[in-house]
Inverse folding.
């Protein structure tokens, strides 16, 4: 599959198609948040220690919260379409600045998780399927079943307990040792050390999922007619596995990895909370309790864009892997 | 059908183990008020008593009996998991059936709708829903159901689409049956087994989501819950590891056993997958 | 016969797993194949003919299905004792194989060129350039136009016939001594089948290959066989020269199989003017897919049916004949309104059905009923036989007890044991299920019966019985029938009139006897010429 004008046209079309979905998500969440008890003004006033109602009203006017709901909504959607995500009164900063500051860590965590879980899932599934019903297969399958049932936040805590508290090999929380003022490679290494446990925690479930899928897909593909053809050509079993079966079996795993992006973002909320990882999930969580709805909506907007984007990338990867898929 | 299914199921050892453990959890949860009478939030003794002493699982930071918490928390987990799954499966089945049967613009619209729900980061959305409705068992169930139905809808839609092409459905149309009769009496009984399997696996996922919400402090504050216990014990990880470890193991084993049962049901319903 | 056999099977036995319905797939079978000879192995489904092919290649699905005795001598060497290394060297290079379904037999993610190249790569030490030259030469030899393009193409980009040609090229590229062909034309249309059969025969003569050709179709046997081996339940019941087996079969089973093959002689003419027109179709049109979508390229529309007119008289049977993709099934489904046509009218006995909404149509549906192709998919597996048959009358307001009584009567009409009434479909064979499907359609006493390839999924002996049953019922109930088939032999036997469909249009329409005697359209002539074994007239045998 070459990248030609067709591919670009396809990408443009997919992005345009995603606009209504993303706007819809923003609108839905906007309306939902209107139902929430209290707003930023009440929270700020409450923190000020039972401020008089005049002060609250004043705050509301300043934040534009006194206008009718539909006006606020229209204004917000208009702003979002021009990529203006508004102002966080709570943090006294533009929302986009706040979000982009936190986007990096989240992308780093999600990216490494995606790569680690897909690669190790494919590898383990392959090993299990090529040694089906031997001890290797059993160990991998049992481990996958257990990992599949493990609560993320709990395994995170247990990893901290083991590797940070008892063994003292890895740092407990955060993304880097801020007081060390590392620079260059030292900083990269420091971040990498902080990244190990969060990635492992978030990867575990997906690794189990992909391992199981890969194993099933391999066994499934091994029964296909083209494998009999390959045998009738005189191909050795090892060649059949690596040249013919492997590629066909990877396809469903890739599809699944695309579907799971939304849930991966959700999982990172938990992992960020456990490891105090300074990402979007933490920010979303804080903004919810601070009733900082502009910020929360901005995060929803960005996450939806991220999901759309990653899905598009997965589809493009699929296009390269499977010649049967046509643009459209 | 009944006899061979049951025999195939129990011959599968992991599934039989899962069922046995699940039965144990259900008995424990149902019997919690008798085994550990009184409020599980009640302080019974000194704080941080280690497990396997005076109290089977020790006491927590406030001196509450952890074993009582486990038993009562099981009630919450199972109830929320079961009810949320039933709601999600019902919504998903209904929408999937209509989309798959009618196809065309109805299908397009419904699939856009599910796509929409799959683009929202699900767990984040659940957090917002619970926060808006204020945390309670009801709001947690609603939130879990709202984020869980899309995969079921997709599954049921796919099954219905395939069934719609099957000739016995075409024959039913030729006989002049109403759409309602075809959907519910001809097709649905034939796609029930994948729905049951997906539904039983969803109970496990729902328990995990409930635990995560409670861990983050979004649980029902009046009901003891495993996730809450882990969240509460989190600050004492260094000195009292059992506060977190024990409820986590309870979640792990319960979810594991439900998964094993679900897969056992799947294997028993599709025996040909196992024979070769 | 002085030349030693290339391949000699001596008392070959293959065991089936314990849960199978019989102990052995192949039982003490002995057979010889010589150079430059085509031996056809004929049998119905479950006769063990495909297992035989795989046993020779050492490709049985171990450990469940395995050889338990006998010898497979290839050029004097017993393949059953050859090690895996030796077998791999023989497979592909000395004994090659082609399969029924080239779409699934080729790896969907690999180009045709690469898949053929792989075969050369394993067995010969050639440079890349030499390999490519050889592949191009062979693609040319199997008459694939534009071999350069075919080499770069993926399997899904080719037609069924092109894929099978590519498979043949792959099998023959190393000039094997033996080619094993497992139903290589069964999945193909009749005109493509004729071309592939001719190709196999031509290449076989040219390269002096010994071909073991597995088939269920006596027409194909008549077309290419030098020798014929007939198998039944894993046992070789008759072996002989093609002319002898086809024209003077000795074994009773062979005789019954040959007697079941419909002769290519059309039904005698019937008086046409006497009967009024029951079904009148005019200007029916159906296009699938939508036009170019927003920002998408290309038009993906398929004109399945292009403005078709038809009329069927009461009591007559019209055959709708065509190859796959000709639009015949779509047309039938438009008539019965399983598919909404884009345009045109369908009138049944004066009522304009196309003017009715889906809801309004419902009470009228009982006048047209359908018999489907797939005996496994056409019955709801969760209902008993009597429920399946009674559900039509119940839907139209007949009391349940009365409907069940009707259903039991119908079981007798389709010659099924009344004791079968309360069993479920999976307990019946394909032919029996087709009978249940016919009973279900008849339960509503329809004016018109639409039969969509009702016998094409059945073995030839069962096919003959079901056709006979349909003919009897039609004559007894004076049914009007629209009979859809791709098989001209079946059409000749069943239909009063024939409409030949090609690319969504009816290219020829007339009494069967006239169409067969003097086809007007070039496509009709092509179809008739492609019927396998058209020059062989099955002998009149006592059944």
């Amino acid at each position: 599959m070459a990248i030609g004008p067709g591919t670009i046209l396809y990408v443009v079309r997919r992005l345009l198609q995603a606009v209504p979905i993303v706007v819809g998500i923003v609108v839905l969440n906007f309306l939902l948040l209107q139902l929430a008890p209290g707003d930023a003004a009440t929270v700020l006033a409450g923190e000020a220690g039972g401020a008089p109602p005049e002060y609250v009203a004043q705050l509301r006017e300043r934040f534009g919260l006194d206008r009718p709901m539909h006006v606020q909504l229209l204004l917000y959607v208009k702003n979002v379409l021009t990529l203006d995500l508004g102002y966080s009164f709570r943090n006294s900063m533009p929302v986009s600045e706040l979000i982009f500051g936190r986007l990096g860590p989240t992308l780093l965590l999600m990216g490494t998780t995606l790569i680690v879980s897909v690669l190790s899932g494919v590898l383990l599934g392959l090993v299990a399927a090529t040694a089906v019903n031997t001890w290797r297969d059993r160990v991998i399958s049992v481990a996958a079943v257990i990992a599949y049932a493990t609560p993320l936040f709990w395994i995170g805590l247990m990893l901290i307990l083991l590797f940070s508290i008892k063994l003292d090999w890895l740092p407990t929380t955060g993304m880097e040792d801020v007081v060390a003022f590392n620079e260059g490679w030292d900083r990269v290494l420091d971040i990498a050390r902080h990244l190990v446990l969060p990635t492992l925690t978030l990867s575990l479930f997906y690794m189990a999922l992909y391992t199981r899928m890969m194993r099933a897909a391999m066994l499934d593909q091994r029964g296909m007619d083209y494998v009999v053809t390959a045998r009738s050509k005189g191909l050795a079993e090892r060649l059949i596995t690596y040249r013919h079966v492997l590629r066909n079996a990877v396809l469903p795993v890739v599809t699944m990895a695309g579907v799971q992006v939304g849930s991966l973002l959700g999982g990172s909320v938990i992992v960020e909370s456990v490891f105090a990882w300074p990402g979007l999930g933490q920010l979303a969580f804080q903004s919810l309790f601070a009733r900082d709805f502009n910020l929360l909506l901005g995060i929803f907007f960005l996450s939806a864009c991220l999901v759309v984007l990653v899905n598009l990338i997965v589809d493009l990867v699929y296009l390269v892997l499977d010649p049967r898929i046509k643009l459209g | 059908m009944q006899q061979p299914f049951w025999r195939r199921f129990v011959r599968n050892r992991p599934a039989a183990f899962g069922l046995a453990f699940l039965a144990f959890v259900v008995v424990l949860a149902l019997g919690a008020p008798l085994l550990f009478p009184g409020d599980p939030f009640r302080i019974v003794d000194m704080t941080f008593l280690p497990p396997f002493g005076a109290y089977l699982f020790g006491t927590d930071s406030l001196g509450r009996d952890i074993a009582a918490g486990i038993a009562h928390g099981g009630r919450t987990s199972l109830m929320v998991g079961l009810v949320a799954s039933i709601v999600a499966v019902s919504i998903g089945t209904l929408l999937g059936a209509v989309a798959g049967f009618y196809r065309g613009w109805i299908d397009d619209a419904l699939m856009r709708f599910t796509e929409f729900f799959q683009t929202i980061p699900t767990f984040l959305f659940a957090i917002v829903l619970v926060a808006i409705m204020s945390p309670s068992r009801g709001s947690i169930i609603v939130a879990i159901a709202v984020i869980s139905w899309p995969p079921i809808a997709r599954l049921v839609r796919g099954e219905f689409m395939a069934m719609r092409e099957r000739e016995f459905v075409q024959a039913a149309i030729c006989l002049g049956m109403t759409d309602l009769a075809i959907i519910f009496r001809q097709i649905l009984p034939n796609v029930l087994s994948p729905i049951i399997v997906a539904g039983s696996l969803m109970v496990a996922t729902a328990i995990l989501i409930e635990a995560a919400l409670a861990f983050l402090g979004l649980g029902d504050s009046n009901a003891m819950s495993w996730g809450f216990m882990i969240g509460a014990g989190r600050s004492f990880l260094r000195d009292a590891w059992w506060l977190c470890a024990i409820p986590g193991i309870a979640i792990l084993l319960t979810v594991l056993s439900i998964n094993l049962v679900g897969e056992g049901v799947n294997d028993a319903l599709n025996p040909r997958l196992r024979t070769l | 016969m002085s030349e030693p056999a290339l391949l000699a099977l001596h008392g070959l036995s293959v065991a089936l797993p314990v849960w199978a319905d019989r102990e052995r797939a192949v039982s003490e079978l002995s057979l010889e194949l010589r150079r430059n000879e085509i031996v056809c192995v004929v049998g119905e489904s479950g006769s063990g003919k495909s297992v035989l092919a795989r046993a020779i290649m050492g490709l049985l699905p171990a450990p469940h299905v395995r050889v338990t005795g006998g010898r497979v001598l290839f050029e004097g060497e017993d393949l059953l004792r050859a090690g895996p290394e030796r077998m791999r060297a023989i497979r592909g290079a000395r004994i090659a194989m082609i399969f029924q379904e080239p779409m699934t037999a080729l790896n969907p993610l690999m180009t045709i060129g690469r898949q053929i190249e792989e075969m050369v790569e394993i067995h010969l030490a050639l440079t890349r350039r030499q390999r490519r030259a050889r592949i191009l030469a062979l693609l040319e030899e199997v008459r694939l136009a534009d071999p350069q393009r075919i080499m770069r193409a993926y399997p899904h980009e080719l037609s069924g016939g092109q894929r099978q040609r590519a498979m043949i090229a792959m099998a023959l590229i190393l000039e094997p001594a033996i080619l094993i062909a497992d139903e290589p034309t069964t999945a193909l249309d009749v005109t493509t089948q004729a071309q592939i059969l001719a190709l196999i025969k031509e290449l076989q003569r040219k390269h002096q290959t010994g071909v073991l050709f597995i088939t269920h179709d006596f027409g194909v046997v008549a077309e290419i066989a030098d020798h014929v081996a007939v198998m039944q339940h894993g046992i070789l019941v008759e072996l002989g020269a093609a002319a002898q087996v086809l024209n003077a079969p000795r074994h009773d089973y062979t005789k019954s199989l040959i007697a079941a093959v419909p002769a290519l002689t059309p039904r005698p003419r019937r008086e046409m003017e006497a009967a009024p027109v029951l079904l009148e179709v005019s200007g029916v049109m159906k296009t699938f897919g939508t036009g170019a979508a927003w920002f998408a390229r290309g038009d993906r529309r398929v004109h399945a049916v292009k403005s078709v007119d038809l009329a069927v008289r009461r009591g007559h049977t019209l055959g709708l004949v065509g190859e796959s993709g000709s639009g015949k099934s779509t047309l039938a489904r438009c008539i019965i309104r399983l598919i909404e046509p884009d345009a045109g009218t369908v009138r049944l006995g004066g009522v304009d059905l196309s003017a009715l909404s889906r809801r309004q149509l419902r009470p009228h549906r009982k006048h047209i009923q359908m018999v489907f192709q797939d005996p496994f998919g056409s019955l709801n597996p969760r209902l008993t036989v009597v429920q399946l048959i009674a559900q039509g009358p119940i839907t139209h307001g007949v009391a349940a007890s009365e409907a069940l009584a009707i259903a039991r009567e119908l079981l007798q009409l389709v010659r099924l044991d009344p004791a079968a009434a309360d069993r479920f479909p999976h307990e019946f064979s394909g032919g029996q299920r087709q009978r249940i499907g016919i009973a279900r359609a008849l339960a509503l006493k329809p004016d018109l019966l639409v039969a969509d390839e009702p016998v094409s999924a059945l073995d030839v002996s069962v096919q003959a019985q079901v056709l006979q049953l349909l003919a009897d019922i039609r004559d007894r109930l004076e049914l009007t029938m629209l009979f859809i088939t791709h098989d001209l032999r079946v059409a000749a036997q069943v239909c009063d009139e024939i409409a030949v469909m090609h690319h969504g249009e009816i290219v020829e329409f007339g009494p069967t006897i006239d169409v067969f005697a003097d086809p007007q359209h070039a496509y009709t002539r092509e179809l008739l010429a492609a019927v396998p074994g058209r020059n062989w007239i099955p002998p009149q045998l006592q059944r």
The two ends of chain C are 34 Å apart (CA to CA).
